[in-house]
Design brief:
Layout lengths: L4 H6 L5 H24 L6 H7 L4 H7 L3 H5 L1 H16 L6 H11 L1 H9 L4 H9 L5 H26 L8 H21 L6 H13 L1 H6 L15
Length: 229
């Protein structure tokens, strides 16, 4: 994560060719999100995106393999930040806390990285569309499964476990991924779709993991009796 300014400043500045490639890539990402936000995912084509970015279709495919790939470029960036945050958590930290802190502590860095590419509001508008767009939701869930696989591998490595022989890393990550999905759904269907609202929902859901799994949910400890209607 780019959390230390001096480390970032020490990196060599990309050359002219690389900067031009970055500008073209960023233009394609922004054009894609703007079109998807206004026309919908199904109503946006690769040709539309290329034209909006003032490049050819051939140029588009030099940067992205498909419309799905460019639509989820920001999400892939966020995932990379979270994975790096997991790698940087201190040794000895409990696995669930590793995942929790990796997500929450990398939050500001992710938003800053997004803002360097597209307006954060634009990204959130498209992100909110996932739940109501079958093609986007299917891609999102598939990508989430891939991320969970990588997270389970990292957790297993941290704990000195064989991810294929010990089920605990995958069980933990699956439960954690479920929490993220609950927060995403509640945010996307709620009235406040701000970044602050998403973080608050995510924090609340993560704080409920322990009680939800281990504690008695009944307020008085007695079974709830069903009444006949």
């Amino acid at each position: 994560m780019e959390t230390v300014g001096t480390a970032v400043d020490a990196l060599p500045r990309p050359g002219l060719r690389e900067r031009k490639k970055q500008r073209t890539r960023n233009a394609l990402v922004r054009a894609a999100l703007e079109l998807i936000a206004t026309r919908g995912y199904e109503g946006t084509t690769v040709d539309d995106i290329a034209a909006a970015a003032d490049v050819s279709q051939r140029t588009f495919f030099r940067y992205f393999a498909s419309k799905e790939e460019v639509a989820f470029f920001i999400s892939r960036l966020a995932e990379a930040h979270v994975l790096e945050a997991v790698r940087e958590r201190p040794p000895g930290e409990a696995p669930l806390e590793v995942l929790r802190r990796a997500v929450l502590d990398s939050w500001d860095g992710i938003n800053e990285a997004v803002e360097r590419l597209v307006p954060l509001e634009l990204h959130l508008r498209v992100y909110r569309m996932i739940e109501s767009t079958p093609a986007l939701l299917a891609a999102h869930l598939r990508r989430a499964a891939e991320l969970e696989k990588e997270l389970a591998r990292l957790v297993a490595e941290r704990e000195g476990l064989d991810v294929d022989g010990d089920p605990r890393p995958r069980i933990l990550v699956a439960a954690f991924g479920g929490v993220i999905r609950v927060a995403e759904r509640r945010w996307s269907t709620g009235g406040d779709v701000s970044v602050a609202a998403m973080r608050e929902l995510l924090t609340t859901c993560l704080d409920h993991v322990g009680p939800a799994l281990a504690e008695n949910w009944r307020t008085n400890g007695s079974p709830v009796r069903r009444t006949e209607t």
